[in-house]
Amino acid sequence: MDVLLLGASGRIGQRVADELLSRGHRVTGVSRSGTVDGIDDEDFVAVEGDARDPDDVAKLATGHDAVASTLGPSGEEEPDVLPEMMDAVIEGMGRAGVERLVWTGGAGGLKVGPDTRLVETEEFPEEWEALAREAIDAYDVLEEQGDDLRWTYLAPAAMIEPGERTGEYRTAEGELVADEEGESYISMEDFAVALVDELEEDNAIHTYLGTGY
């Protein structure tokens, strides 16, 4: 599979690239600088691109089988760049004729009760709320797309950080994944496994999917 990876220079993006390459896929890694550190593989190409620009996305996506996104706001950007990037990526993919998208979303919109999302709980950190709500707005843009775009909005657990690749994880449609003690966690390495599994297997088309242990 030829995969265009947006946000390839980030911590999750690099792990997704490594996971794709380890399974024999070819990866075009997009970053604003055009460089992605720490990856040396003949099936990996780093390119410069701006995910806010549909023309850039269309040019880069052409000839690929799928687009994977690990995009997030850079240090100087406001969280409202997320729906902007979603609009641009969808438009660019349409122009390029690429139909498959797996987007790394946020856990804030996942349900923790019948009528309660994670972002609405008292425990949710206030400093993350603006980003969580913009991620939900980006998901709303995606959900409005027709059947031509085969998308999956893949969210990590409430806590995601560098760790071990075990190859084990659980998923839940629209719900936060937590263990018996109520802890919601996944390593970046196993989140990358889940993302590549979804690209390969297409099990959650048109789905907001939570991941965790």
List keywords for this structure.
single chain; 213 residues; alpha/beta; eight-stranded mixed β-sheet
Helix and strand arrangement:
Layout lengths: L1 E5 L4 H12 L3 E6 L12 E5 L5 H8 L4 E4 L11 H16 L3 E5 L6 E3 L2 E2 L8 H18 L6 E6 L3 E3 L8 E4 L11 E3 H14 L5 E6 L1
Parallel strand pairs: 1-2, 1-4, 2-3, 4-5, 5-8, 8-12, 9-11
Antiparallel strand pairs: 6-7, 10-12
Helix pairs in contact: 1-5, 2-3, 3-4
Summarize it.
It contains five helices and twelve strands.
Structural class: alpha/beta
Which H/E pattern describes the elements? EHEEHEHEEEHEEEEHE
Helical amount = 25-40%
**CATH architecture classification:** 3-Layer(aba) Sandwich
The named CATH superfamily: NAD(P)-binding Rossmann-like Domain
What coarse outline follows from CA principal-axis ratios? globular
E-strand count = 12
Question: Domains counted in the coordinates: how many?
Answer: 1
